């Protein structure tokens, strides 16, 4: 029987089990043998990862051709206007080609969201805004590159969902077996 778990990856943890210098890895949090990450999450991003020993499930989640939805909360610099949100919704031009359209909307910071350690840099005269984005591809640093392309760099990025799975109360560093 396949084993699958949901993990809330903390900020500045590598999405791999093998050590890399003095950086934290999945091995510092997950003591389940034989499971592997179905996709990656950047070192400086937080949130949901799926780990499994089911190769077919791993491929369905991580291979872009299956167009699995991944949901993110992005705290961006500035307040995106209608034009910036429309650009994200239509797809933006990136160096490696245009992105697929994203579902995007402005949201308030969720009450359930944990404090990040260390916190983001705060600039007194520049506001921030939270966006909820759903994408169906997963290129390297894609959400960060998309928001930067419309003039609103991402300051904090939290993946909240993959397919039908969600964080659902998992705190950073915690995992739950399915």
From the structure above, extract its key features:
178 residues; Alpha-Beta Plaits; alpha+beta; 2 domains; 11 strands; two-stranded antiparallel sheet; 9-stranded mixed β-sheet; globular; 3 helices
Mean pLDDT: 95
Shape: globular
Q: Give the H and E element order.
A: EEEHEHEEEEHEEE
- Protein structure class: alpha+beta
Q: How can the largest sheet be summarized?
A: 9 strands, mixed
- According to CATH, the fold-level topology of the largest domain is Alpha-Beta Plaits
Rg on CA atoms, Å: 16 Å
The parts where pLDDT drops under 50 for at least 5 residues are none
Count of DSSP strands: 11
Percent range of helical residues: 10-25%
CATH superfamily of the largest domain: Alpha-L RNA-binding motif
Explain the overall architecture.
By secondary structure, this protein is an alpha+beta fold. The chain has two domains: 4-63 and 164-177, 2-Layer Sandwich (Alpha-Beta Plaits); 69-162, Alpha-L RNA-binding motif (Alpha-Beta Plaits, 2-Layer Sandwich). The chain has helices spanning 55-62, 82-90, 142-149; strands spanning 4-9, 36-37, 46-52, 70-77, 93-94, 97-98, 103-107, 128-135, 154-162, 165-166, 175-177. The chain is globular and about 50 Å long.
Quick structural summary:
The chain is of the alpha+beta class and 178 residues long. The protein folds into two domains: 4-63 and 164-177, Pseudouridine synthase I, catalytic domain, N-terminal subdomain (Alpha-Beta Plaits), CATH 3.30.70.580; 69-162, Alpha-L RNA-binding motif (Alpha-Beta Plaits, 2-Layer Sandwich), CATH 3.30.70.1560.
């Amino acid at each position: 029987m396949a084993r699958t778990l949901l993990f809330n990856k903390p900020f500045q943890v590598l999405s791999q089990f093998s050590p890399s210098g003095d950086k934290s890895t999945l091995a510092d949090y997950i003591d389940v043998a034989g499971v592997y990450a179905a996709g990656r999450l950047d070192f400086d991003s937080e949130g949901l990862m799926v780990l499994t020993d089911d190769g077919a499930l791993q491929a369905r989640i991580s291979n872009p051709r299956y167009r699995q939805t991944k949901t993110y909360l992005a705290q961006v610099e500035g307040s995106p206007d209608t034009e910036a949100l429309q650009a994200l919704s239509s797809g933006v031009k990136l160096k490696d080609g245009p992105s697929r359209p994203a579902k995007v909307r402005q949201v308030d910071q969720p009450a359930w969201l944990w404090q990040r350690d260390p916190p983001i840099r705060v600039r007194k005269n520049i506001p921030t805004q939270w966006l909820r984005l759903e994408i169906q591809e997963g290129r390297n640093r894609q959400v960060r590159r998309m928001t930067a392309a419309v003039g609103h760099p991402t300051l904090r990025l939290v993946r909240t969902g993959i397919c039908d799975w969600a964080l659902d109360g998992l705190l950073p560093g915690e995992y739950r077996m399915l």
